[in-house]
Design goal:
about 65% helix, 4 strands
C-alpha cells in the first residue's frame, strides 16, 4: 500500500513544475543574496570632525580615523554646534571633537582628551561606529607611546599590551556566521511550507475524500506525505551547501555526516509541523497565514539574528520549545568550530523529542472520515 501512495505523491510532485524551480531558486536566493542583506557589519560611517587644535598631532589623528575603511569624512566644522547641524541634516553619523591644547597636553605628558558623539537613532550603527572610532583613537595613543620611547599619553609606561585573537572566524566575516543559520531557514521554509500546503490543496481539490474512503491507515498516509519531503529537504540542503561553497567559499569544519544526521531529524520536525498546520487548516490561505505566523516567531527567537543569551530570562526559557534554535546551534558549531557529534548530544535529544511530538501530533490530528 505504501508503494502506491508514494507513487501518487511523486507523480504529483513531478507534475508541479513550480516546485522543481523553487527547490533551486529558493536556495539560490537564501544563500547567495540574503547574506549580503542580513550583514550587520557597520561600514561607510559618515564622520564629522571639529578640530579646535589644528595642530600636527590633531591632523594626524583625523587622517588615521578617515584612513579606515569604516569611516568616510563628510563634514569639517569650526564648532560643535555646526557639527550637530550636520548630524541633524543627515550628512554625519559621528562627531570627533578635538579640544584646544590637544597637542600641548600630549607634549607635557598629560592625558589627551577627545569627545566622540554618536547619532544613535540607529542604535547598532551608532554604538558600533563609536566603538570603532574609540579603538582607532586608542591605537593612535599606542603609536605615540612607541614613538616617545614607551611613555604613555598620561606619562606612565603601559604595563602590558593586549593582542586580540579571533577564534573560529579570524576575519570577522559576518557571512560565516549567518550562512549556517540561513541554511536552517531554507529547510524550514521549504519543508514546512510544502507539507502545510500539501494536504490543504487536496482538501480544496476534493481528492482527499478518495483517500478517506480507502482502508489506508492514518499512520501510513502521514508517512507517505513525509517521505517525499525528506528527499526534497536533502536536495535543498545540498543546493544550499554547494552555493555556500561556490559563492562564499564557506565549507563545514566538522563532519558532513553529522550535518546529514541532524538535518534528517530537523526535516522530519519541519515536515511534521507543516502536517499539523495542514490538518487544522481548511484553505491554503489559512495554512499560509498560520505557517508564517509561527515562522516569524521561530526565526526571531531561534538565535538567528540575536544571541539567545542577550534575551530576557523568561524569553530564554520560551526558546526551549523552538526546534530552530537547536538546529541553528548545531549548524554553526559544525561549520565554524568543527564540533563532533558527542559535543552536541543535548541538541540531538531535543530534536529527537520534537520529531516524536510533531509527528505523533500530525497522526492524531488528521481526521480520516468519509
Amino acid at each position: 500500500m505504501l508503494k502506491y501512495l508514494l507513487e501518487k505523491e511523486f507523480k504529483q510532485i513531478l507534475r508541479n513544475t513550480f516546485l522543481s524551480k523553487l527547490i533551486i531558486v529558493l536556495p539560490l536566493m537564501t544563500i547567495v543574496v540574503f547574506p549580503y542583506v542580513t550583514n550587520q557589519e557597520v561600514r561607510d560611517v559618515k564622520l564629522g570632525v571639529v578640530d579646535n587644535d589644528s595642530s600636527p598631532l590633531s591632523r594626524r589623528l583625523v587622517e588615521k580615523s578617515t584612513a579606515s575603511s569604516y569611516f568616510r569624512l563628510t563634514d569639517v566644522s569650526p564648532s560643535y554646534s555646526e557639527a550637530l547641524r550636520a548630524v541633524e541634516a543627515g550628512t554625519a553619523d559621528l562627531i570627533l571633537e578635538i579640544p584646544r591644547g590637544f597637542e600641548r597636553d600630549l607634549m607635557r605628558g598629560e592625558a589627551g582628551q577627545v569627545m566622540i558623539s554618536a547619532n544613535s537613532v540607529n542604535g547598532i550603527r551608532g554604538g558600533l561606529g563609536s566603538q570603532y572610532l574609540s579603538s582607532i583613537v586608542a591605537d593612535y595613543g599606542n603609536d605615540l607611546r612607541e614613538e616617545t620611547g614607551g611613555m604613555g599619553i598620561s606619562g606612565e609606561t603601559p604595563a602590558f599590551r593586549v593582542e586580540m585573537a579571533y577564534r573560529f572566524n579570524p576575519t570577522l566575516d559576518y557571512k560565516v556566521f549567518m550562512i549556517p543559520g540561513l541554511i536552517v531557514v531554507l529547510l524550514t521554509l521549504l519543508c514546512c511550507a510544502f507539507t502545510a500546503l500539501n494536504i490543504v490543496s487536496e482538501k480544496e481539490a476534493g481528492t482527499i475524500e478518495q483517500i478517506n474512503v480507502t482502508p489506508v491507515s492514518k499512520r501510513l498516509f502521514i508517512l507517505s506525505k513525509l517521505m517525499p519531503n525528506w528527499i526534497i529537504g536533502f536536495l535543498a540542503l545540498a543546493f544550499g551547501m554547494v552555493f555556500a561553497w561556490l559563492v562564499h567559499g564557506i565549507v563545514p569544519e566538522g563532519s558532513l555526516l553529522t550535518i546529514l544526521l541532524f538535518s534528517a531529524l530537523y526535516i522530519l520536525v519541519a515536515s511534521g509541523m507543516g502536517m499539523v498546520i495542514s490538518n487544522y487548516s481548511d484553505t491554503m490561505q489559512q495554512a499560509m497565514f498560520v505557517m508564517f505566523f509561527f515562522m516569524i516567531i521561530m526565526m526571531l527567537t531561534g538565535g538567528l539574528f540575536t544571541p539567545i543569551d542577550s534575551m530576557p530570562d523568561w524569553m530564554q526559557w520560551c526558546t526551549a520549545v523552538n526546534p530552530l534554535r537547536y538546529f541553528t546551534q548545531v549548524m554553526r558549531l559544525v561549520y565554524l568550530k568543527g564540533s563532533a557529534f558527542i559535543e552536541m548530544l543535548p541538541e540531538f535529544f531535543w530534536l529527537c523529542g520534537f520529531v516524536l511530538v510533531m509527528n505523533i501530533w500530525a497522526v492524531r490530528s488528521y481526521k480520516k472520515s468519509s
